[in-house]
Amino acid sequence: MPYQFEDLKHACQAEWQAYIEHGFVRQLGDGSLAPEAFQHYLKQDYLFLIQFARAYALAAYKSPTLSDLRQAKEGLQAIVDVELDLHISYCNAWGISEEELANLPEARATLAYTRYVLDTGNRGDLLDLHVALSPCMVGYGEIANWLNNRAQTIRGDSNPYDAWIAMYESDEFQDAMQAEIRWLNERLGDVSPTRFEQLTRVFRDATRLEIDFWDMGLHLSD
Ligand SMILES: Cc1ncc(CN)c(N)n1
Predict the structure, then answer these.
(1) How far is it, in rounded angstroms, from Cα 161 to Cα 114?
(2) 45 pocket-lining for ligand 1 (C-beta < 6 Å)
(3) Nearest 5°: phi and psi at 53?
(4) Which atom of ligand 1 is the closest one to the Cα of 140?
(5) Are 46 and 87 in contact (CB under 8 A)?
(6) Which terms does the UniProt entry file under GO BP (predicted)?
């Protein structure tokens, strides 16, 4: 039977659930997250997004066909034109200037995750790289949808984190997430069980690094 993206999630169910339903996410949803934790996360996420934009540029470099190149461009555009732009204005609203962002040191969780993805992409092929990128692109879209279906989630002005949820439930982000899933489904359909095992390891590692990123925000780790 051809593999699908859902099979990767299924193979890493415990890690995927721990990522999507993390304490940081729950507290964002009900508005109880400490502002310092959110600001720490926001700053590190700016650094994270710059490295992830580089990883999509690597995907463009590794693309053998026009359709692969277009998919890499979509990912790069979603980060640079949608997420980073919104992120900078969102940081400003939270009292974090662009100058401060430009001079931040990277936390260990940021270093570990971003360099893992770049290294996986350098050593492996285009599919390894997209699988390593997928918890980022697919996970946040899924988190926004999970929060929206959760009774404890507060939407609107009474939740200071409402704009964050809105960013990831936006059509632009949800469309980019669906395009990534479609691209992966087409490629995963052809892989052998042994190759799927290898890719599962990459997906699990990247998902665990997403969990560490939430932990870093929650505990203000550097
Ligand atoms: C750590 C992290 N992971 C995923 C995303 C969503 N692109 C993000 N902004 N930051």
Answers:
(1) 25
(2) yes
(3) -65, -40
(4) 6
(5) yes
(6) thiamine biosynthetic process; thiamine diphosphate biosynthetic process
Burial of 172 (0-12, 13-18, 19+ CB in 10 A): middle
Q: Which domains does the chain have, with CATH numbers?
A: 5-219 (1.20.910.10)
Ordered per-residue pLDDT tens for the chain, 222 residues: 799 999 999 999 999 999 999 999 999 999 999 999 999 999 999 999 999 999 999 999 999 999 999 999 988 988 998 888 888 888 998 888 988 988 999 999 999 999 999 999 999 999 999 999 999 999 999 999 999 999 999 999 999 999 999 989 999 889 989 999 999 999 999 999 999 999 999 999 999 999 999 999 999 999
Decide if 3 contacts 191 (C-beta within 8 A): yes
Residue 172 is a catalytic residue? no
CA-137 nearest atom, ligand 1:
7
ipTM: 0.99
| 49 CA → ligand 1 middle, Å | 7
Counting ligand 1 atoms within 8 A of each CB, the residue from 28, 52, 215 with the most, and so the one to mutate, is 52
State yes or no: is 36 an active-site residue: no
| 3-class secondary structure, 87 | helix
